[in-house]
Automatic annotation (TrEMBL):
Homodimer. GO terms for molecular function: 4-amino-4-deoxychorismate lyase activity; D-alanine-2-oxoglutarate aminotransferase activity; pyridoxal phosphate binding. This is D-alanine aminotransferase. Belongs to the class-IV pyridoxal-phosphate-dependent aminotransferase family. The keyword Phosphoprotein does not apply. Its EC number is 2.6.1.21. Keywords: Aminotransferase, Folate biosynthesis, Pyridoxal phosphate, Transferase.
Amino acid sequence: MVYLNGNFIAKNKASISVMDRGFLFGDGVYEVIPVYNGKIFRLKAHLKRLQKSLDSVKIPNPHTKSEWLDIFNQLLSHAKTDDQSIYFQITRGVDTQRKHSFESLTPTVYIETNPLIPKPKQVLEQGFRVITQPDIRWSRCDIKATSLLANTLYAQNAKEQKMEEVILHRDNIITEGATSNVFMIKDSTLYTHPTGVNILSGITRDLAMESAQACGLTINESTFTLNKLLNADEVWISSSTREVMPIIQIDGRTVNSGKVGQYWECVYEHYQHLKEASE
Ligand code: PLP
């Protein structure tokens, strides 16, 4: 069951016009929200970021907060398990002819939910391998836009090389992952790229920093180089569906001892408490 423009229908019955600007131009924005134990995690923060993305590309928000919640809950009532991720996207809508400029259209809303299966701690404790690549994306990475051509190329590269993620650098500065935020820990300080146009301000990024602080780390939202990353005590990535993941190898080079670090262990536990305490 999916949601498309007011209707709850089977996924294979959901279709949109070829004149939808989401199809023609990738002219839309999206969000992904995890649901744990039937409860939507950090809904307010996700809807706030959605509003920011919509405002940035001048698409009107088609729903109020309570309307979004109502639609999500209706969709979730059809889900078979309590842990889900909600994917929802809003495109500018269906035009009459293909042209780059736009007028006021009725936005297209598409929502699907998928089972979310967090990796067990024993699996996470093995750590993950990543590669690095130059950040070739545009200069508005703060907008969660559906036009993700560069990101699909990164994801394919990672898949072909059996890597968890591609970590991106712009002018030798680490920005973020192709689908995640990046953190490095050095001498009990956590570093992560500051928010701004070069990264997506991850909801999990905020939660990771909250957890890191609770675990005794000093937080420093400032840039760092690829070389610093390679010499870090610990490296993590974060996203709504992955939570906080420990990285033990970058471009074939071992991070520290190659074992998952003590701060990650602490942050993992703290994050689980945040999930359990969510309302
Ligand atoms: N950065 C990028 C480029 C992403 O695509 C994502 C998530 O998909 C994130 C960061 C992490 O954001 P969040 O923690 O809100 O899922």
